[in-house]
## 1
Amino acid sequence: MPKTIVVKIGTSSLTQPETGQLALSTIATLTETLCNLRHQGHRVILVSSGAVGVGCARLGLTERPKAIALKQAVAAVGQGRLIRIYDDLFSTLNQPIAQVLLTRADLVQRSRYLNAYNTFQELLGLGVIPVVNENDTVAVEELKFGDNDTLSALVASLVEADWLFLLTDVDRLYSADPRTVPDARPISLISNMKELAELQIQTGGQGSQWGTGGMVTKISAARIAIAAGVRTVITQGRFPRNIEKIIQGEAIGTHFEPQPEPTSARKRWIAYGLVPTGKLYLDDGAINAILQAGKSLLAAGIKAVEGEFESQETVQLCDRHGNEIARGLVNYNSEDLQKIRGCHSRDIAGILGYAGAETVIHRDNLVLI
Ligand SMILES: Nc1ncnc2c1ncn2[C@@H]1O[C@H](COP(=O)(O)OP(=O)(O)O)[C@@H](O)[C@H]1O
Ligand SMILES: N[C@@H](CCC(=O)OP(=O)(O)O)C(=O)O
């Protein structure tokens, strides 16, 4: 059965740690592997980091730049080289590719989200391998994916992929960073989110010198992907041929089992496409109603409102400690919500002077995180 497969490769696998130069043999093997998958009839998307890393190597910079404008300039240099190398290698094997550069804004607006979906479908239908990266050169801070682990999970969710492979410089997920904790326990399988929470995995700092997110962004990417029904695997980038072995059933890397009933596409867009603009802190009763009974959020259960937002924007719903439990499209702006928080629904019209929605967030617009 043909599958849709998204493969994300990080800077740490694409470049040699000592010199920052491209790891050509890894890239060539990855190219061959993805072409093999295409020949087997699978639909393949590559999410490739490396614009900043390759740009630095090209310009002789020995450290990842911190200043935003410099990073954006360096990414413009690197992205061109990166795509040229991919196109040369894939062309040798007669495989057409496409460059797809996305910013967060492309997924926020529903029409642009659907447009991105349609473009991916066309490319995959044409047998092309899209090579995706964040459009680093124009992305602004507030509308950034920030890391390609998240971007790859959002792409996998958008196209409803069967597999997401996160290729990195460790062979799998461990109970703690194996660089600093030598006896960290390897983890082969995570069956659901509850199990993940119970494992209390330590993710340490920012990852390798050239990577951006470290393991923490891979775990949150896995969370996004499995909610969309995508089986996710963290495995070593140096051995891209393992992708084929894994699809054939070999137990390599760390596998995250997909949620049996994926969240609907619209709710996934609310949860991960949109960028939250505020926070609502809830009391225990409201948390229970949402988590256990799948109810809508009423004004009575809101303890505090943070941020400025308009009605129909997305907000995070948090417990008293600020831990996010859900997200949703809010029916009132922040100013009105400050006035009606903690109040019974029947009093809202009297307080605001107009009859608004009975719920603050209707359950159809509310997604558990
Ligand atoms: N619990 C953990 N298990 C495995 N690796 C971890 C863990 N916590 C932190 N890491 C670190 O995450 C790094 C990979 O992240 P990163 O450098 O961002 O890679 P990439 O460039 O592939 O995205 C590894 O080199 C490892 O040191
Ligand atoms: N978009 C950036 C990469 C961001 C990123 O997530 O990097 P990495 O942690 O190496 O996957 C680039 O191309 O350099």
## 2
Amino acid sequence: MENKVALITGAAAGIGASCARRLAAMGIAVGVLDLDEARCASTVASIVEAGGRALALGADITDRGQVKEALAKLRSELGPIGLLVNNAGIPGFSSFLEIDDEAWDRMIRINLTGSFIVTQEVLPDMIAAEWGRIINISSMAAQAGAPRMAHYAASKAGMIGMTKALAHELGPNGITVNCIPPRFITGTIMSDQSFAAGKQPLLRDAEIAAGPIQRAGRPEDIAGAVAWLASDEAGFVTGQVIGVNGGRYI
Ligand SMILES: NC(=O)C1=CN([C@@H]2O[C@H](COP(=O)(O)OP(=O)(O)OC[C@H]3O[C@@H](n4cnc5c(N)ncnc54)[C@H](O)[C@@H]3O)[C@@H](O)[C@H]2O)C=CC1
Ligand SMILES: Cc1ncc2c(c1O)C(=O)OC2
């Protein structure tokens, strides 16, 4: 993995930051992309401190021009991109009849269209190298549902469909495409803010107590699965939706 370059979106914090640190520890040079470059500083610093290579990239994944600019910078400083983790996303909590057109469009635009744009812009490098890894961070809300999250669940279910279609299309090019749909990962802004604001529609503590594994997930749990999917050992795994969720959705 020493000569490989990965792009991780939404990597300023939470799951994305953990994935970036984990891939960097495998010797992969990482592009740490988030809404603005300054927000990426702490992730980049922690990677550099640990002896890894990382570059901060500011871009809104819904803006193709900004994505193109960020990727040009990543390619010129670190090289062609071999791995992509589509992790950037936003949550949303509204009863179905209260989701207006604007909230619906924004959700689909960021979580689904943003992942589409980044994947399209990264892909030529992987096709040229005849090797690639695409890992999409969806949500268990896409599989099991969650009240007041129809727009979010729909956007994340879209990522599962895109994963499966792309796996077919890109298998002949040596590129694998897989999906991890988490639930209840603690210590991230997204999950902690939603609980603090009382917006959480499910009884998190009750679900966790019901097991099978009776603890909340951690960003590192997701990063460990991402690291395996990124590795050469996982080259025969594609089009899969891999639950890293304590067994809560089987
Ligand atoms: N925390 C959890 O329990 C769960 C999280 N997820 C998914 O995991 C992913 C990461 O979430 P967390 O680390 O928990 O949240 P987080 O809010 O800490 O991280 C998301 C990152 O994405 C960035 N981002 C948002 N919109 C962006 C855009 N348009 N362009 C570029 N960057 C953008 C944010 O600035 C933020 O740094 C999300 O896609 C989320 O939907 C899924 C299921 C459960
Ligand atoms: C039930 C539930 N609550 C909060 C969140 C999610 C979820 O599925 C999610 O995927 O990201 C934040």
